[in-house]
Amino acid sequence: MVAKFLGSLFGSGSGPRSAAGAGLPGAESAAPDPAADELAVTEAALHDLRRTVLGKGAELPTLVVSQILLLLDTLNALIGYIVSSGASTEQRVLLNAIITDYLPSPLRAYLKLSASARETGSADTAVLLDQLDTLYATVGNLDNQVRTGAVTELAVHGQFLRDKFNVDGLRLEGH
Q1: CA–centroid distance for 18 within its chain
Q2: Is residue 31 classed as helix, strand or coil in its secondary structure?
Q3: Of 57, 79, 105, 125, which has the fewest Cβ atoms less than 10 A away?
């Protein structure tokens, strides 16, 4: 039970694993990692969204395309970080919701509007830009949470090791 608790604190055995274990020795016997699989699906959805935005770029004001691509770049970097460092279930769920719902839903609704409603100075464009600003702030907060959580976990792990091995009290003879 103690090992399970410590493992949950320090991520032993629960770190991120690749969803594509093909070609790796012993990959067939490795247990499937639902978190990695979920993250792979989220990443694929992100790339599909990028293709959609680039494909519909002529129908969107330049500022809208720019803000969406900035969001997508930020999300892509965050996914890369999560793949290497991990994230909580709640953080992965929020990331997935942003990529599969919160960003594409208003974009699809906006694209259904008439061309005149999608002009740079229109009220509908202003609403979409406000939504994109809110999403960008949310993604920034999520990115900070994920990175801060990793730093906090490392600090706790480092303190555990210092306490366990009394590194500060270790002295070499003659020094």
Answers
A1: 15
A2: coil
A3: 105
Residue whose tokens read 């061309």: 115
Q: What are the tens digits of pLDDT across the range 141-170?
A: 999 989 888 667 667 767 776 776 665 555
Cβ atoms of 36 and 17 within 8 Å: the answer is yes
Q: Vertex 44, ends 105 and 52: CA angle to 5°?
A: 45
Q: What b-and-e string marks burial along 104-128, b requiring 16 or more CB atoms within 10 Å of the CB?
A: beebeebeeeeeeebeeeeeebeeb
> To which residue do tokens 């990331």 refer?
95
**CA atoms within 13 A of residue 146's CA, in its CB half-sphere:** 26
